[in-house]
Amino acid sequence: MSDTTIFDKIISREIPADIVYEDDQILAFKDIAPKAPVHYLIIPKQRIATLNDASQKDQALLGHMMLTASNLAAEAGIAESGYRVQMNVNKGGGQVVFHIHLHMFGGRQLAE
Ligand code: AMP
Fold first, then answer.
1. Of 20, 10, 13, whose CA–CA distance to 72 is shortest?
2. Is the CB of 94 under 6 A from ligand 1?
3. How far is the CA of 15 from the centre of ligand 1 (A)?
4. What is the pLDDT of residues 35-73, one digit of tens each?
5. Domain at 6-106: CATH code
6. Which of 18, 29, 30, 41 for mutating ligand 1's site (highest number of atoms within 8 Å of CB)?
7. Domain extents for the chain?
8. Does residue 8 have its Cβ closer than 6 Å to ligand 1?
């Protein structure tokens, strides 16, 4: 597995992204292939390949990602109507980019 992914290039601004939030630890941007009217990805700036690679030291970072997802849903006006937060893990879980990311999407009725 490569040590870097396309998300590193977004963090370093080598490739463009529609960034909706940034701080010293995380970045959030619009998914290039949105599954819903609002679809953001929230990623840590320091690469962790999969959730399986996260450890106790990442606990606060993971919580920060989750709370940012909820803040961004509120900003996007979909907090009350509802949205989904999802992290895919490894190939069988649908993970394609091996740099952990939360999907936050909504703005339409989501099926189970
Ligand atoms: P996953 O399948 O969980 O690994 O999700 C990867 C997500 O990254 C997909 O929803 C893609 O549409 C999204 N994606 C891939 N490349 C880009 C990009 N350059 N900018 C924004 N989103 C991207």
1. 20
2. yes
3. 13
4. 999 999 999 999 999 999 999 999 999 999 999 999 999
5. 3.30.428.10
6. 41
7. 6-106
8. no
The values of phi and psi at residue 43, to 5°, are -130, 150
Distance from residue 112's CA to the centre of ligand 1 (Å): 21
- Report pLDDT digits (tens) over 19-36: 999 999 999 999 999 999
Q: What is the 3-state secondary structure (H, E, C) of the chain?
A: CCCCCHHHHHHCCCCCCCEEEECCCEEEEECCCCCCCEEEEEEECCCCCCHHHCCHHHHHHHHHHHHHHHHHHHHCCCCCCCEEEECCCCHHHCCCCCCCCEEEEECCCCCC
Q: Do the beta carbons of residue 104 and residue 85 sit within 8 Å? A: yes
Of the pLDDT bands very low, low, confident and very high (cuts 50, 70, 90), residue 109 is very high
Does the beta carbon of 93 lie inside 6 Å of ligand 1? no
Distance in angstroms (rounded) separating the CA atoms of residues 20 and 22: 7
